[in-house]
């Protein structure tokens, strides 16, 4: 056999192997299936220092640190929970960020209750290893500002154009968030 003939035989065998090992190719998803594949993008925010030359000052500002995709068919509460779970895993070492059902005054304002919860073995500052308590993320000016910006901006989703809550109220261990030194999570945060 000549060399070109051997090459053709090898080529045909490889082509046949590739074609027979391919799984079924679907032309187009059915109408009901198309909805399941649609997703929406949500920004995940963090913070960074930025120099404001006119003010001769450095300030912490929000920036988009990532984007997550969430199924379009999910409820607003499910979308909020997905964002909260992402924040917990990515920035807060798995600490619980519980989202309550949205509620409002006579249906006019939709507010989400964000409850920051400690692990079961937490008794107070210093009772668990570093970064296993929300206190670790509330400490220091930079850390507190980063926690504030990450939670508020990621959960408010100010640039999202779909249906969303009008604002947020933060709680710590089931109690309304206090006016603490380094974090600014006290009160009602309007989306606008």
Question: What share of the residues does DSSP label as strand, in percent?
Answer: 25-35%
Structural class based on helices, strands and sheet pairing: alpha+beta
Low-confidence stretches: 21-29
Helix content: 25-40%
Structural features, described:
The protein contains 5 helices and 7 strands. With 192 residues, it is α+β, with helices and mostly antiparallel strands. Strands 3, 4, 5, 6 and 7 form a 5-stranded mixed β-sheet that branches. A two-stranded antiparallel ribbon has the order 1-2. The chain is elongated. It starts with a helix and ends with a strand.
Produce the secondary structure layout.
Elements: H1 3-21, H2 31-37, E1 39-52, E2 57-71, H3 76-91, E3 96-99, E4 111-117, H4 134-138, H5 141-156, E5 167-172, E6 175-176, E7 188-190
Characteristics:
alpha+beta; 5 helices; five-stranded mixed β-sheet; elongated; two-stranded antiparallel sheet; 192 residues
Summarize the structure.
With 192 residues, this protein is α+β, with helices and mostly antiparallel strands. The protein contains 5 helices and 7 strands; from the N terminus they run ααββαββααβββ. It has a domain of 116 residues.
């Amino acid at each position: 056999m000549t060399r070109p003939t051997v090459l053709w035989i090898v080529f045909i065998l490889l082509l046949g192997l590739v074609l027979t090992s391919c799984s079924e190719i679907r032309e187009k998803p059915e109408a009901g299936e198309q909805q399941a594949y649609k997703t929406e993008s949500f920004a995940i925010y963090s913070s960074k220092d930025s120099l404001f030359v006119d003010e001769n000052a450095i300030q912490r500002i929000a920036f988009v640190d990532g984007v997550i995709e969430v199924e379009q068919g999910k409820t607003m509460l499910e979308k909020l929970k997905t964002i909260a779970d992402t924040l917990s895993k990515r920035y807060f070492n798995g600490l619980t960020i519980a989202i309550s059902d949205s509620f409002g005054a006579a249906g006019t304002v939709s507010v989400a209750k964000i409850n920051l919860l400690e692990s079961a073995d937490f008794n107070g500052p210093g009772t668990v290893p570093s970064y296993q308590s929300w206190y670790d993320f509330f400490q220091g000016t930079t850390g507190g500002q980063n926690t504030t910006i990450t939670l508020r901006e990621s959960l408010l989703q100010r640039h999202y154009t779909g249906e969303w809550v009008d604002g947020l109220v933060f709680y710590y261990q089931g109690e309304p968030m206090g006016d603490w030194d380094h974090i600014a999570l006290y009160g009602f945060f309007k989306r606008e």
